[in-house]
Amino acid sequence: MSEQKKLFFGISLPEESRQGIIQWRADTFVAGTGRPVAAANLHLTLAFLGEIGEEKSRALQRLASRIRQAPFTLTLDDAGHWPRSGVVWLGPRRSPRGLLQLAELLRSQAARSGCHQSTMPFHPHVTLLRQATQPVSLPPRNFSWPFRVERFALFQSIYAQGRTRYSEVAAWPLSQ
Ligand code: 3AM
User: Fold this and answer.
1) Which ipTM was obtained for this model?
2) According to the model, what pLDDT value does residue 1 have?
3) Percent helix, strand and coil across the chain, each rounded to 5?
4) Residue 44 CA, ligand 1 centroid: distance in Å
5) 105-129 pLDDT, tens digit each
6) Burial class (CB in 10 A: 0-12, 13-18, 19+), 113
7) How many domains does the chain divide into?
8) 28-72 confidence digits (pLDDT tens)
9) pTM of the model as a whole
10) Nearest protein Cα to ligand 1, atom 1
11) Ligand 1 center to 120 CA (angstroms)
12) Which domain CATH number covers 154?
């Protein structure tokens, strides 16, 4: 059997937005609120695939390469806390239709290939802090990071020496 890899489809954030966000996070949340996600790891998950082998990964990449969708603008202007999963997140107040379409398509292709998909509705978010299980005081919604999404990617989640990093396996442009 081929080696299994932990994979997900997602969108990475532009460097400029990442830097702005981590500075804002440091200024906004008191130390100890949770474990900050490294700047390089800030991303928006579109579809989680789990641990899968090379054959299934290639089949899903072929399907992804056939997606034809226009680029869209994503504005991160909302924040929230999910105490059960211990996640503090940033997300859009209004999700662009293109984002929902892309996630829906990737999630249904993943499900048809046997990658279990959560029955929870897709809630687009960028995880900022993990292990935040105590009540969190959320900031006023006076922030906004808009950026153009012109590509999406398949990422491998690699855990080594106590750290997780996400490495891009392949990426596709959004263009019609
Ligand atoms: O940081 P976010 O929330 O975007 O939580 C994991 C992370 O998402 C999620 O996949 C992303 C990359 O690891 N993830 C991990 N295990 C998962 C699972 N079993 C999962 N999502 C759904 N089901």
Assistant:
1) 0.89
2) 60
3) 25, 40, 35
4) 10
5) 999 999 999 999 999 999 999 999 9
6) middle
7) 1
8) 999 999 999 999 999 999 999 999 999 999 999 999 999 999 999
9) 0.96
10) 127
11) 13
12) 3.90.1140.10
